[in-house]
Amino acid sequence: MYNNPNLVRFALLFTLRYYRFFISFHGFRRYQPSAVPKNPIFGPKDITLILYTRSVLESDNPDFEECLTTWLLNQPAHIIIVTDTEEREGVAKRRYSDTCARIQSGSSRFLDDIGATDVSVVAVSFMHTNFADKHIQLAVAIPMVQMPLIVAFDDHVFVKPRFLQAVAAVFEGPQVGLCGTKKEVRRKALRLPHLRETAGNYSGLFWGTIGCCAGIFGE
């Protein structure tokens, strides 16, 4: 093998390409949620959310309202919405205001059985970077953070009402400064019925975990 440079290159590329898969698989098998203590040090009020987005128009991104609604129901301390252009920043402000009004009146179709909820206590800031790059958007927003914990996400992430409380529990350990969450991915149904029947729920959870994770940063 070592005398065959092409085979060596192939082995190297194969290793670099698939090592992440095996690490993710190991994490998937070992995953277990952190228990929320009776007297937690951190909670949603200690968290700033950073939402970076390029698509805020209803026609471009119908998921934007649902995304905002599910995060607002978690009652974080602060939400920073970062767009790429000044024009989209203005659209984001209008859509945020409309979303809050629907949540507080109970007319939002994303409330399920929760009912009207007061989200006026959540502080919000808007900004734009003139760059359609989530890394730049995140870097610009971080200096504005005053809370000890940051949760960063894009505009296609939907969470349960107690998600932030569960995330905060991870940082009860003083040695923890960074974590990624386990989540499911919304996928279109498989075209072949027999494949859908044999795939099973475990397969969906597995590929959802392998495919992506939310970035969560501790100060």
- Shape-level CATH architecture of the largest domain: Alpha-Beta Complex
Total separate domains: 2
| Largest sheet composition | 6 strands, mixed
Which CATH top level class of the largest domain fits?
A: Alpha Beta
Strand content: 5-15%
* Unreliable stretches covering 5 or more consecutive residues: 212-219
Count of discrete alpha- or pi-helical segments spanning 4 or more residues = 6
Total number of β-strand segments? Answer: 6
Tell the overall outline. globular
Question: What would your notes on this structure say?
Answer:
There is one protein chain. It contains six helices and six strands; from the N terminus they run αβαβαβαβαβαβ. It has a six-stranded mixed sheet. It is globular. The C terminus is likely disordered.
Secondary structure elements and their pairing?
Blueprint: H1 5-30, E1 47-52, H2 64-72, E2 78-83, H3 86-105, E3 123-128, H4 134-141, E4 149-153, H5 163-170, E5 178-181, H6 193-211, E6 214-218
Parallel strand pairs: 1-2, 1-4, 2-3
Antiparallel strand pairs: 4-6, 5-6
From the structure above, extract its key features:
six-stranded mixed β-sheet; 41% helix; single chain; 219 residues; alpha/beta; Spore Coat Polysaccharide Biosynthesis Protein SpsA, Chain A; disordered C terminus
